[in-house]
Amino acid sequence: MTRILGICGSLRADSYNRQLLAVLGEYFPEEVSFSIFDAVDVPVFNADLETDGDPAAVTALKDAIAAADLVVFGTPEYNGSIPGSMKNLIDWASRAPNPLHGKPAAIIGGSTGRFGTAHAQLMLRHILVYMHCPLLPGMVAFAHLRDSFDGSTLTDDAIRGRLEKTAGAIMDWLAKVEA
Ligand SMILES: Cc1cc2nc3c(=O)[nH]c(=O)nc-3n(C[C@H](O)[C@H](O)[C@H](O)COP(=O)(O)O)c2cc1C
């Protein structure tokens, strides 16, 4: 059984990025167990919170990453970078023992702006290189997302098609990384 974990950089209930991850998950083969981590209870990082052991939500995050064969990050773009909540999750995960170290990873992202998270994704790549994560090559970015959703439902078949291709590319690439 291959396990793939989605981590979303948005806490918004109707997050486009969580939906993009969820639709991506529909296209993995049956033998893949895909889940999206619910980050809403992860506190802002503060080393004092580690004194009595990690908060429960942080333990859940680190366990989920450790159990995954690959992590897909779904990132929005805030002010040309990743949201603080995404950086916060990575900062928590990076505390020893760091389950992200060397973990195969992929990045997708979408925004309502015209660059579709290109800036944020480059910054996220930089951070994940620091984590020694082998990263799916290329960029999967979606712009002007307000036109592609009805509420939290993806209505754009072209995006669905790209997500289907991305799921295939992730599986092919994971096989190469694990070979
Ligand atoms: C604080 C803030 C800053 C933003 N900055 C950008 C930006 O730099 N580029 C962009 O394309 N969209 C930007 N947006 C719009 C987001 O792309 C949009 O809110 C998107 O829906 C967030 O992703 P989500 O739907 O997964 O929550 C910003 C939104 C917020 C709240």
Features:
two-stranded antiparallel sheet, binds flavin mononucleotide, 179 residues, five-stranded parallel sheet, 5 helices, alpha/beta, Rossmann fold
Oligomer: single chain
CATH topology-level name:
Rossmann fold
Helix content: 25-40%
Shape: globular
Termini separation (Å)?
16 Å
| Helix-strand topology string | EHEHEHEHEEEH
Radius of gyration: 15 Å
Strand content: 15-25%
Description:
By secondary structure, this protein is of the alpha/beta class. The chain has one domain: Flavodoxin domain (Rossmann fold, 3-Layer(aba) Sandwich), CATH 3.40.50. It is 38% helix and 18% strand. It has five helices and seven strands. The strands form two sheets. A five-stranded parallel beta sheet has the order 2-1-3-4-5, sandwiched between helices. Helix 1 crosses helix 5. The longest helix is centred in the C-terminal third of the chain and has 22 residues. The two termini are 16 Å apart. 37% of the residues are buried. The structure holds flavin mononucleotide (FMN). Flavin mononucleotide binds next to helix 1.
